[in-house]
Design goal:
Immunoglobulin-like; single chain; disulfide bond; 8-stranded mixed beta sheet; repeat; Neuronal growth regulator 1; 9-stranded mixed beta sheet; mainly beta; membrane; rod-shaped
Length: 331
């Protein structure tokens, strides 16, 4: 809907005639999904008056004669009214923005009506960076361009739990990017006309593997055993398993290996003495590798170790007692 604001009305005189100039401001919000229509009202003083419409300095109509080649413009009047001399523009767009003048020529009282049409356009993001894949430590520049009237303002947000505004302007520059800065970045374009327009860019940060955890489950003789290797890496790593220096393979020696995007699980279906030893998980991607080891100790070895510790403790107590009695005998 058109909203008309009367800005000022002034009267000027000269030696020949009284000229009345009316200044109006017409604000029209343009939406590309609509086919908007604007009508600029103007009235002749009487049936003998002559009128003309101008856009800036170009004549659109002189009386009933159309000078403009634009098929969207026409002269309209209310039914039964011979004085109305209004200009109508169909399918208003941003190129119609500007000043329009209705000049009414009479014998005694020339009159002009000046209307300034402001076409406001909601923000629209017309160009944005494609999704980005970079290595950790690289510099990244994201770009977002929007159109609208008034000119939209642009700000960026990193879509995190806090989702705070990170930067203002068409360009977002990230120096020495880290893995924590990966994810979606949101470009917001807004002006006073309508709701903001939003588009997103996904930033993927590649980094070498890190072993986060090695976890054991079971491992008793004659029972199933499991080792889980948890990692962090982008892109997802390939996994290798070793027992000592020997590489292990899925489906051999009663061992099953299942690998996923960030973890690998080694399962022994039935633990025997031969399965005990030092196991190493290796995670590899194009940026590097990481490994971690965990010992699987035989229950018989563990029991022997307990007995051995007890024997050492008993020997220490015997030695302390002997020294104590020796010192007493001296006194």
């Amino acid at each position: 809907m058109d909203v008309i604001h009367i800005v000022v009305e002034s009267c000027q005189t000269n030696r020949k005639a009284y000229v009345k100039t009316v200044l109006q401001k017409l604000v029209h919000v343009f939406n590309s999904n609509e086919r908007p229509l604007s009508t600029f009202r103007c009235y002749l003083a009487d049936v003998t008056s002559k009128g003309a419409w101008l856009n800036r300095s170009s004549i659109i109509f002189a009386g009933e004669d159309k000078w403009s080649v634009d098929p969207r413009v026409s002269i309209v009047s209310s039914i039964g009214s011979k004085r109305e001399y209004s200009l109508q523009i169909q399918n208003v767009d941003i190129t119609d923005d500007g000043q329009y003048t209705c000049s009414v020529q009479t014998q005694h009282n020339p009159r002009t009506v000046q209307i300034y049409l402001t076409v406001q356009v909601p923000p629209k993001i017309c160009e944005i960076s494609p999704n980005v894949v970079v290595n950790e430590g690289s510099n990244v520049t994201l770009f977002c361009q929007a159109k609208g009237k008034p000119e939209p303002s642009i700000f960026w947000r990193h879509i995190t739990p806090s989702a705070k505004k990170t930067e203002t302007g068409e360009y977002l520059v990230i120096t020495s990017i880290t893995r924590d800065q990966s994810g979606e970045y949101e470009c917001n374009a807004e002006n006073e006309v309508s709701f903001r327009d939003i588009k997103k860019v996904k930033v993927t940060v590649n980094y070498p593997p890190t072993i986060l955890e090695m976890k054991l489950t079971g491992m008793g003789l004659g029972r199933p055993g499991l080792i889980r290797c948890e990692t962090a890496a982008v892109p997802s790593p390939l996994f290798e398993w070793y027992k000592g220096e020997k590489k292990l393979f899925n489906g051999r020696q009663g061992i099953t290996i299942q690998s996923y995007s960030t973890r690998s699980v080694l399962t022994v279906s039935n633990m025997t003495e031969d399965h005990y030893g030092n196991y190493t998980c290796v995670a590899i991607n194009k940026l590097g590798a990481a490994n971690a080891s965990v010992p699987l100790i035989s229950p018989s070895t563990a029991q022997y170790g307990v007995r051995g510790s007890g024997e050492v403790l008993f020997s220490c107590l015997y030695l302390v007692s002997a020294v104590y009695f020796f010192l007493i005998s001296l006194y």
